[in-house]
TrEMBL record:
L-histidine binds at residues 119-121, 150, 164, 168, 294, 298-299. Homodimer. Residues 1-37 are annotated as: Disordered. This is Histidine--tRNA ligase. HAMAP family: His_tRNA_synth. It catalyses: tRNA(His) + L-histidine + ATP = L-histidyl-tRNA(His) + AMP + diphosphate + H(+). Residues 61-365 form the Aminoacyl-transfer RNA synthetases class-II family profile domain.
Length: 477
């Protein structure tokens, strides 16, 4: 279980880039640090190292995801990071921010246009078609975890390489699938100790959306002069995105805008109502958000996002994850018509939320035994002993790099180990080893071949070291 602490770790108070300059600017890619650290290569802007001190929290997240994936019988799939760029153009769609502005597209040495994946649903659907998964028992339930790449403007919670864990369920169009995926995502976040809710909407089928879009465009055209430049472009290229615009003028106009829920056909309405009923049934905290559309073309029917309850979750960059139904995607990629639904969680955002909530990973168990050596012959025995203890399930600490016994005992004390094994030259010759009880200072000389079993017994019995066999440290040569 994660532990909740009031004090925050010093780790990863990452300083998001403050610059809000447009991405096209070349200056934008010159990190402040890049200017300062002369000589040493630095990270590209929007990329980051996940340092050892962050790994405890990341492992906690990875474990929670894996546990839930297994409990809900999803099968792991690993998908390539590099794909033909066409895969994303066809699925996410031209006119979307991801494809138009954020894709890392380049020509590979074989003169093919390739892209670093900006998300993995399209790749999962490609794999489903490529490997004939339609012929397997449906639903085919897949999960993945790995890095995604979007050349977005770096800011708090937005990186150019970030990690997602995704869940995709292919082959069943029942609303229960949507509901179960939502529960699954919520459960991961709840297991981690986060207080979250779901924002949900339906964007219907492609057909009913067309009629709605015509109405939406007509409405915003009347108010075109009030729109910012970005939203004017959206009106032309991807009008649905006007619904989640952050521009205050557009947000104000939304009050009078037509709402997609009023344009859903009967089947779409029924599907959505059933999803909501399931969620009510199992008391999932959800909020209807008529402006939630998600930025990708392939979604149909249910769309949803996970946000922190109580936080300023309305801002989409605070979403911990999101997804929806994409009934047309497999067909779009040349497969037979296949309903599907899925979502992805952003690992950095979850790690950040845990840090902000003061939720710390469980401490790694500290070794109870330390091995102190004197000289090379004793180091050689130490290497072997280290492995014997590992195989016996007793983690052992060492300071092979130190020479003096004093320094090694200080290191052992710092670690708070229960026992230290001391091997001097004499003991190597005698094939013995000293076991020192760190609390009482009592020492015992034992047969080196029996030391693993003896230590195991002492650690489990609390019996300590027999006091009558003390050997002064100064005797050890
Ligand atoms: P999306 O499908 O684009 O909504 O992404 C799903 C989740 O991935 C989001 O809710 C975020 O948690 C995370 N995410 C998306 N883009 C980024 C990014 N540039 N940096 C960090 N996390 C991201």
């Amino acid at each position: 279980m994660p532990t909740k602490k009031s004090t925050k770790n010093k780790e990863e108070k990452s300083t998001p880039a403050k610059s809000q300059k447009p991405m096209e600017s070349t200056e934008d890619d010159v990190d402040e640090k890049e200017k300062k650290v002369k000589g040493a290569p630095t990270l590209l802007r929007g990329f980051r190292d996940i340092l050892p001190e962050e790994q405890g929290r990341w492992n906690m997240i990875r474990d929670a995801i894996r546990d839930i994936a297994e409990a809900y019988t999803f099968d792991r799939i690993d998908l390539p990071i590099l794909e033909r760029s066409d895969l994303f153009l066809r699925t996410i769609g031209k006119g979307t921010d991801i494809v138009d502005k954020e894709m890392y597209v380049f020509t590979d040495p074989s003169n093919r246009s390739v892209a670093l994946r900006p998300e993995a649903t399209a790749s999962a659907a490609r794999a489903y078609v490529n490997h004939g998964m339609l012929d397997r028992p449906q639903p085919v339930k897949l999960w993945y975890m790995g890095p995604m790449f979007r050349h977005d403007r770096p800011q708090a919670g937005r990186y150019r390489q970030f990690y997602q864990a995704g869940f995709e369920s292919f082959g069943v169009d029942e609303p229960i699938v949507d509901a179960q995926l939502i529960v699954l995502g919520l459960q991961i976040l709840k297991d981690l100790g986060l207080d979250v809710k779901v924002q949900i909407n339906s964007i219907g089928t492609f057909e009913c959306r067309q009629a709605y879009l015509a109405e939406l465009v007509a409405y915003f055209r009347q108010h075109r002069s009030k729109l910012c430049e970005e939203d004017k472009k959206r009106l032309q290229k991807n009008p649905l995105r006007l619904l989640d615009s952050k521009d205050p003028a557009t947000v104000e106009l939304l009050d009078g805008a037509p709402q997609i829920l009023d344009w859903l056909d009967d089947k779409s309405k029924e599907h959505f109502m059933k999803v909501l009923e399931f969620m009510e049934e199992i008391e999932v905290p959800f909020e209807l958000n008529p402006y939630l559309v998600r930025g990708l073309d392939y979604y149909t029917h249910t769309v949803f996002e996970f946000v922190l309850a109580g936080g300023d979750g309305e801002k989409s960059q605070n979403a911990l994850g999101g997804g929806g139904r994409y009934d047309g995607l497999v067909e779009l990629l040349g497969g037979r018509p296949t309903p599907a639904c899925g979502f992805a969680l952003g690992i950095e955002r979850i790690a950040r939320a845990l840090l902000d909530a003061g939720i710390d990973p469980p401490q790694r168990p500290q070794p109870a035994v330390f091995f102190a050596q004197l000289g090379d012959a004793s180091r050689r025995v130490g290497l072997k002993l280290f492995e014997e203890f590992r195989q016996a399930g007793i983690p052992m600490a060492e300071a092979f790099g130190k020479n003096a016994l004093k320094g090694q005992l200080e290191a052992a004390n710092k670690l708070g180990v229960q026992l230290t094994l001391i091997l001097g030259q004499k003991e190597v010759l005698d094939e013995t080893i000293i076991i020192r009880d760190m609390e009482s200072g009592a020492q015992e000389i034992v047969d080196v071949k029996k030391v693993v079993a003896l230590v195991q017994k002492k650690l489990h019995s609390d019996e300590g070291v027999a006091p009558n066999t003390q050997a002064p440290i100064s005797d050890i040569k």
